[in-house]
Amino acid sequence: MVRVVCEWDLAGIEAWKERADVFVIVDVLSFSTSVSVALDRGATVIPFPYGDAAAAERAAASLGAVAASKDRTRSPSLSPSSLRDLPANTRLLLPSPNGSRLSLATGSTPTFCASLRNAQATAAAARRTAGAEGVIAVIPAGERWDDGSLRPALEDWLGAGAVIAALGGIPNAEADLAASAFARADKRLGDMIRTSRSGLELSERGFAADLDIALEIDSSRTAPRLVDGQYSNDARPSDLAVKAP
Prior knowledge:
Elements: E1 3-6, H1 9-16, E2 22-26, H2 31-40, E3 44-49, H3 53-63, E4 66-67, E5 91-96, H4 99-103, E6 111-114, H5 119-130, E7 135-140, E8 143-144, E9 150-151, H6 154-167, E10 170-171, H7 173-185, H8 189-194, H9 197-204, H10 208-214, E11 224-227, E12 230-233
Helix pairs in contact: 5-6, 6-7, 9-10
């Protein structure tokens, strides 16, 4: 039976890099949600570590891609709202200080990206990829305090729990606790995320609509998988027909 582990951020990836058969990155506000929206539109997403806009523009030009703006009021950007009308077949280079950085840190291990919008679909694809006896490492990204240290983020913990609950299998203690937190949140999940530190920050900056999109629970049937440096949809019709053991 598949084994499921859960550890935070880059240290979690490093801890499981030699043992995991699949990684699932969870950065709900907003990288993972933005990836799911873009893939819903028929686009592909190239993760890019957060840096200056000029470097992103140069990288996008070299790849035949469109660089997302660091300014969330522009389109396209890291704001999921800005991607609702993204043209099909767009190659979107998406700078992100957390989700992109983690996506690029997993080396050759198969890597997926999950949000609350596509937890079921991504879990099914990850389970298929790992095989019956594989190890799946679910990595909540978290945020950063002003001194650069990790700030565990409620929305990523609950998003990881949603994926873990859908995966089934044998969880380690951390994975079990994350899945239990997601189940216990139940109908309060939306209020919890809206009033979390990250949720309040987004609302105060005028991006409450991004929270609405992030909370479209399992509205997407995309399973973003990183192949050759870009996320594309790896969902198959048969995936969701098979229940987690």
